[in-house]
What does this fold into?
Amino acid sequence: MSTVVETPDKAPEAQRPPRRAAFFRGRLLQIWTWLVIVWLCLPIAVMILFGFNDTQGRYNQSWQGFTLRWYRELFAIDDLTEALLNSLLIALLTMLIAGALGTLIGLALGRYRFRGSGLMNLVMFAAISCAEIIMGASLLSMFVTLAVQLGFWTIVVSHVMFSVSFVAVTVRARVMTLDRSLEEAARDLGASTWQTFRLVTLPMIFPGVLAGSLLAFALSIDDFVITNFTSGSTVTFPLWIWGATRVGIPPQVNVMGTLIFAAGVLLAVANAFGGRRRAQRG
Amino acid sequence: MKSSRLRAALTPYALIFPGGLWLAIFFVVPMVVMLSLSLQTGNITDGYQLTWHWQTYLDGLTTYHDQIIRSLVYGLAATIVTIVIGFPMAYYIAFRGGRRKSMYLFLLLLPFLVSFVLRTISWQFFLADDGILLGPLKGAGLLPEDFHLLATSAAVIGGLAYNFLPFMVLPIYVALERIDPRVLEAATDLYAGRVQTFLRVVLPLSLPGVFAGVLMTFVPASSDYVNASILGGAGNTMIGNVIQNQYLVTQDYPVAAALSFTLMALLLVGIFAYARALGTEDVLEVAAR
Amino acid sequence: MSAIPPRDPALLRGLTGRRMAPGRRDLFRMAGLSAAGLALAACGVQGKKAAPPQQSDVEKYWSDKKQNGHVDFANWPLYMDPKRPELKLFTEKTGISVTYKEVIQDNASWFAKIQPQLAAGQSIEYDLMVVTNGIQFTQLVQLGYLVPLDHSKLPNFAANAGEAYKREPFDPGNVYSIPWASGITGIAYNPKYVDEPPTSYAALWDPKYKGKVGMMSDAQEIGNFAMMLLGIEPEKSTPADWEKAAEKLREQRDAGIVRKYYDQNFIDPLGKGDIWICQAWSGDIFQKNVSDGTDLKFVIPEEGATIWTDNMMIPKTAANPVDAITLMDFFYDPEVAATLAEYINYIPPVPSAQEIIKRHAAEAKGEDKELLEEVATSPLVFPSEADYAKLHTYRPFKDAAEQKQYEQIFQSITTA
It folds into this structure.
């Protein structure tokens, strides 16, 4: 009789795993991902929780009750507040300076091909992948050798140094996706180079510039290792915490961490919503 | 015509000049100074003199080879842990994330909104011998009284893996996301099973991401000292602790500088190998995410 | 208009030719060499040993200094009531405001932080600081980083300081410093986990406390402990003794007995149960028990213990030396010394404080009364002659080389 030759025209059915196992296998990855996320957020949860701890003594170690007291007494510890302000100010300066310098570099690397680009790329790559302790140690070596006063400005200088590359890379990525024809059109319509830059290019690369600058801000406010080496007598928020581990972290630190965290979350969520609305507008 | 072309040719140099100068003064020059410092001898009271004392490097290596090896081992262990934990997560987000991809990435990066030091200290608090985690377990008799997680190499490696996990997940995710789904379809059409598809299509294509992740994880993990200081104990000091101690406590600048260079040399070997293999642009781009 | 017309062959040749590549490298090399040259020229740290000051030098320094109305005071943690009652009283009486920061964690790291700036003649942003008698204090003196004190501005000190404090071997005649407080380093333990109270240094080497022993990271503290375990008196020790002591410490570490080397944050882990027994400073235990209701105990081992003195001094680049010296003298008012000792529980340099504390105890009631009586009669706060006989001091070093040798021997133990 005629034999029906089975031409396998799609994946062999028999080899597809039974439904339950497939369901589970798919779920396995999802469960894994969520477990990892829980693991990642665990210390954050602990930090937030113990910002509400009604601790009586010097040490915020065991749970003693719920209170909002620390939110009210947030600025009770003078040098902690000073350290936080230092961190914010340094981060702001870093954002502005590194943002400007990095944008210029990003523009150059993304748009032009020139002989210095290879070297520039190499230096930036080295700066990004160099271990922080090496950068901090070398900066301290230089400052000590040249008898430069360590303090606020050496911190700003160091932070700008390691942030510039990150901003440049971010901006460069954005610049490379730009449509040059718009700028050419502006030129054709009589705009000068500066006008073109200000009214056409800058707005177009702005999301990249903003992303890079925010990245610089985040890197600066969190930096510990390099700051530890170049700070002299100035204390920043992470340095204060590090010093305070000796005698116990006061709950105010938890509260400040929680507030910074909340601010970051809000910013990210707002950015996401803004993006969606922008996309909707087309 | 010529002057505008000249101006156009000079524009990129003008653009990179301020940032480039900053990097030259505060990144390149300090390295040179540190090199010089590593070859000097002396002390605080009598001052330091450049004596081309290469012996310092050898002394550093012999005295601290334990810590150097330990740092590389911890760094490697932490990197492997991040790959094991992070690859499945990156795979899930890239292939099964769907519309929720940004949410997952957001959750991945969420802890970074809290200061690095604060996160590590929270772990120290959480893992305390009689704390939230171990206290109840010991009370229930599941663990012996003298069991401790802190002051062990496991805690240090765990801390390193925790702090650098996103640096591994993100590059792998980017690489996986770039895989054209039609390639996967083609594999299935050619009778490849799920495992085969993974091993012979997905894995090789994810390797650039894995390499970038290894670079971004191994280097900072090996040179870290915060985790060892907060979560570690007497036998867990890393070369980063030694360098920090030599600079900020003992003030033995030549030894400190020599050790810094030794560490950097060891890590640079790996970096240049990767740069050669992939080209700096690729890795930078992945790193930028 | 695009930046570089890509098809111009001459330009392409120029871009890819070898000519520029060595040029770039040359430039780099030259920049590197000149920077190195600069580094060589500037030559690291200016070392210098200062001669002891003449009276004329002291007068010259203080002649043009005026009161400015503010003092920046750097101190160790747990050295003053957090509510700062003494400082508030000072401001009331003199109108001088005080910024008090507990930024000194241990002598070595504090010295390392201020040394580069003092060497360059820059301000360290503090007018008054407290440093222990030891290696770093000697270095501060040798390098000329401290202001010689004008004793005409220290009447309270002259009147009320204990005789012993006026002739300390590490600063004879109190040229640069006057004591803040003295303390004893001994053994602290948590009775919840340690059944039999330790009586000897050997307890810290006991394998039954494996992984639960805390040691300090200060080279002199651990060196002293190991030496006393071996029956050596620290102030008379020789380099050979140091090696023996280091060997003992290495054994302790390699056997896994030591959990961690702490700068000065041993109290927290001891209270939490991370360590059960540790090296400790006498006053800290009292303060922890009072503030957190713990029941930690402190003992002086039978082999003896070390006594150290923390001293107030003025760095040479201080902006407000007159205000600083006024504050220094203020703490020698017996009433002030008494209230300070009541809180910090360390040995005050003013002996008459004891009577005042007894008086306060008599006037107080309840728990306060008990605490005050304990402080007034504690041999840890007011040691008797017999107690002093059992206490040893740190070893003084004759020069930088000896210091360095000592430090290197013991620091290699904590950073392994």
